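Still learning. Show one?

>
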Amino acid sequence: MKSLGNVLVVDDDPDLLDLIGMRLSAAGYGVTLASSGEEALRCFRLQRPRAVITDLRMEGMDGHALFARLHAEAPTVPVIILTAHGTIPDAVAATQRGVFGFLTKPFDSRELLARVAEAVAVSPTIAANEADGAWRAGIVSASPLMDEVLRRARRAAEDNGPLLIIGPRGVGKETLARAIHHASSRADQPFVTLVCGTLPPEGLEEALFGAPKARGAQGGLLTAATGGTLFIDELESLPPIVQARLLPLVRKNDGPFGIMRAGSVPDVRILAACESLPERAVQEGVLRADLYYSLAATTLVVPPLVDRPEDITALIASCVEKAGENRRSFSPEALKLLQEAPWPGNARQLVNVVGQAMQLSVAAVVPASLISQLLREESEREMVCFDDARRGFEREYLVKLMQTTGGNVSQAARIAQRNRTEFYKLLGRHGIDPATFKVQT
């Protein structure tokens, strides 16, 4: 029989622990038993339960402390607290802090099963090895931090509204967006991707909305994504004029959209992604505030690989498993180097290095010397070339100038000792819109 989901039960009374375990097992749940708060934390990270039941009064770490630790680590996992009559006020207070619910001892078995069913219903499956976890099969993760991201992603998939994914390059934002699409009601419809940084600014509008002659019912990625999902990566690289045209679609309201008949909005769900600190992009005038806040109503933040070391080992194992004829094992010293590297390029960089190592190794076991060489080469590639550094400085200077002058182009051009025409070209080259810096009156 298919399990209804795994439930972690915590109690220092062995008889009560066994009783609850038997009741839940008989009802079809997978059950993990823990006799202390400390053991429960270890089991929680290993088992990825859909819900937790814990006694309030326990030796050592009590139910309050356990809930605080679980809630800090995974606030979307429902926790049910068992309490005696004398501690009902404590349980009510716990509910106000975010506990899903509480049961009074001695509890009725039917009430127990009802509460657990309610908890599991609001706690989606995130384990890739479960039948209904196929939606996230492309995401390799063993980290509690990513568990929480996936729980939120699974819930967000049930919504049809816009969503913003924030995270540094290489963490797998597109992979997460695809997983959300696969878990949604649009799974059988197209998933279309636009990576803004791969096209010149002048080509992005045509890529999204189609060539001018094709506007109407034809052309562009929006047309290709009709009925499905459009994922826009590197949102901060989208020119302001294109952001303005995209806003009505994100808000799902009628407006001057330019590619459709008046009064119609394409049936497309918008998922967007940008690197960390989008608020800074808003302050710098790169990202429209109204577009950002419309997208950020639902936000997922993907942590960098350095914050989830468990995933380094999981990603290495996944690469080895998929390597085919290039499959190699890694020496303990090589694994240590991989596990301790900073990985500024995150999972994408790690997968690239591991793949190269297996392809280049002439021995069945990849040595530490080869990993050291590849990491050195990666570090050299991470260095920014002079032209890129100069462009970065130029852009920061222009943003600061526009902030200082409140968007006054004439004043800014005088300070920069450039004529207005040349200054406007500089702003356009960096996708900076003076209007976003003007003081609202």
User: Anything to note?
Assistant: The first strand starts at residue 6 and ends at 10. The chain is about 50% helix and 10% strand. Residues 386-405 form the longest helix (20 residues). Residues 216 and 260 are 5 Å apart (CA to CA).
